[in-house]
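Residues and backbone
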Amino acid sequence: MSIVDTISNHVREHRSGMVSDLVFALVWVTIVELFFNFVDGPTWAYYMFMLAGIVAYFGFFWSLELAKAQQ
């Protein structure tokens, strides 16, 4: 099995998860960008908000899994 086959199989298996990850990242970065264009805050706060996206990502998808499990 070649590397191209391995990658295509991985993408085929995880397509919906990869799309939702991408959408979350794009929405988070857009919100932070718009907020800091409006507020004109310090650079360190901008980077902290971007890093907070990691925590927000895991918190959002963890709570989504919990909600699905309770149904």
About this structure: Residues 20 and 61 are 10 Å apart (CA to CA). DSSP finds three helices and no strands in the chain. The helical segments are 3-13, 15-39, 43-70. The mean pLDDT is 90.
